[in-house]
Amino acid sequence: MKAYKWKLFAIFIVLFVVYCSGWEEDKAEAASILKPGSENREVRDVQYRLKTLGFYDGALDGKYGPGTSSSVMAFQKEYGVNPDGTVGPATWRKLKKYTLSESEMEIMAKIIYSEARGESYKGQVAVGAVVMNRIQSDDFPDTIQGVVFQKNAFTAVSDGQYGMKPNRTAYRAALDAVRGFDPTRNSHYYYNPKTATDKWIWTRTPTIKIGRHLFAN
Length: 217
What we know:
Arc Repressor Mutant, subunit A, hydrolase activity, Cell_wall_hydrolase_SleB, Spore cortex-lytic enzyme, PGBD-like_sf, 217 residues, Muramoyl-pentapeptide Carboxypeptidase, domain 1, PGBDSf
């Protein structure tokens, strides 16, 4: 009965997040053009995303001042966007591809904790790196919601362990993964060779072994 309840809970979580994911994508399409003088939640979101990458060190106050503008320009130069200091469609696309919002960072920490809490810190970051690699690949969904809750993508989602509360280490690992720390050599898959039963995963080309997980492409 307990296992059955876990499965029901997991199904509810998947359906709820997929719904929210669609809503977030619709909202992203209609995202405002942000510029000096703008003041709203979207500005705060930009500030948070830039802060996770180390471009911004100011307050998350939702105010588009000189500090935010210069941070946006630094991000634009680094990621090949016209450095005009405003956040238009092109900059939004880059931000959403290479960074996560606060709520998305929570998803990252939860999938890391539920999938790799028994692994070393490097092994936990590695799981987060696989998630980021999938987001940035044309072969997978382009949002963390789409990647994490893709059918049968992660065992912890399927069996309900995703509902566990992550610890501080998982949040730190999530931040490092988003910042580009990738010990997996750009892998898109991982599995435990001692417990894996899916024949397909054994057809993937191994890249590196970290702890109990074998990473592959």
